[in-house]
Design a protein that fits this description.
36% of the residues lie in helices and 23% in strands. The chain is an alpha/beta fold and 266 residues long. A hairpin with a 2-residue loop joins strand 9 and strand 10 (169-177).
């Protein structure tokens, strides 16, 4: 049985720290096959921007400032995500034999592995087909509509993901709501094309009962083990790793020049 590594957090982290940990895991992947998985939480509600998004067009910064919502920019693409009461995952890997060498192929495999975890919870997830052109071209938030090979239940998105790939190495992370907060998502988001009905569903709504982070993460881990035929060993985290993450958090992800890119509303 192949072994993957899992990075276990001791508690929720600030948005800049979460993004720094994910990027550090990606940066430090060796050339030989390695896969590291995280399941994590956020210390405060946080809106994350896709790498190429224009922050002014998609985030209401005044609302976020007034209501204690942090804003970070991801290294992955995609659309705005509100990270709040959710399970967030990341997969960093240099294992071409398992995941292949394309974004689409690895993206679909990770979705299938996470779907196995949802099935263990008693749910019946499906891979989504192509989204409408208005979603692909517009500025609406990530959870407005399922995208191709994302995970849906009854036509509503339950997992939204994004990936960055450089050569044979990639970082993919995504959001799995425990509780949906459509009102806060609408307030955080700026843009005239947000649909009247956002096609998202949370684990608690899908299961018809409250779901906590630990229970959900355990089932998702078990689903990955079952689907990929792997076991998990704890990632050894050194003082040097911690220092590198702290520098990356402070110098990049907490910096206005990265998040807002000097845009007029900054």
């Amino acid at each position: 049985m192949r072994s993957w590594l899992i990075r276990k957090e001791t508690g929720p982290l600030a948005g800049a720290s979460n993004m720094a940990v994910d990027e550090h895991l990606f940066r430090t992947l060796p050339d030989e096959p390695r896969t590291v998985v995280r399941f994590y939480q956020w210390a405060r509600p946080t809106a994350s921007l896709g790498y190429g998004q224009d922050a002014v067009k998609v985030i209401d910064r005044d609302f976020c400032r007034a209501h204690g919502v942090d804003v970070v920019r991801r290294v992955t693409g995609g659309k705005v995500v509100l990270h709040h009461r959710e399970v967030t995952y990341s997969v960093s890997s240099s294992d071409v034999e398992t995941f292949g060498s394309t974004v689409a192929g690895s993206y679909k495999l990770i979705s299938l592995g996470l779907m196995r975890g949802l099935a263990r919870m008693g749910l019946h997830p499906l891979l989504a087909g192509a989204p409408p052109a208005s979603y692909a071209r517009g500025t609406m938030p990530c959870f407005s509509h399922p995208a191709r090979d994302e995970v849906e239940i009854d036509g509503r998105k339950i997992i939204g993901s994004a990936q960055k790939r450089v050569g044979t190495k990639f970082l993919q992370h995504g959001s799995i709501p425990l509780l949906a907060d459509e009102g806060l998502l609408r307030s955080v988001s700026r843009g005239g094309d947000i649909p009247e009905k956002i096609k998202m569903i949370s684990l608690s709504e899908a299961l018809g009962r409250p779901v906590d982070f630990v229970w959900a993460a355990e089932h998702l881990v078990a689903g990955l083990v079952e689907f990929f035929g792997v076991d998990f060993a704890p990632l050894v985290w050194t003082n040097a790793d911690g220092a590198a993450v702290e520098r990356l958090s402070e110098e990049k992800y907490a910096a206005e020049s990265w998040t807002w890119r000097g845009e007029a509303s900054a």
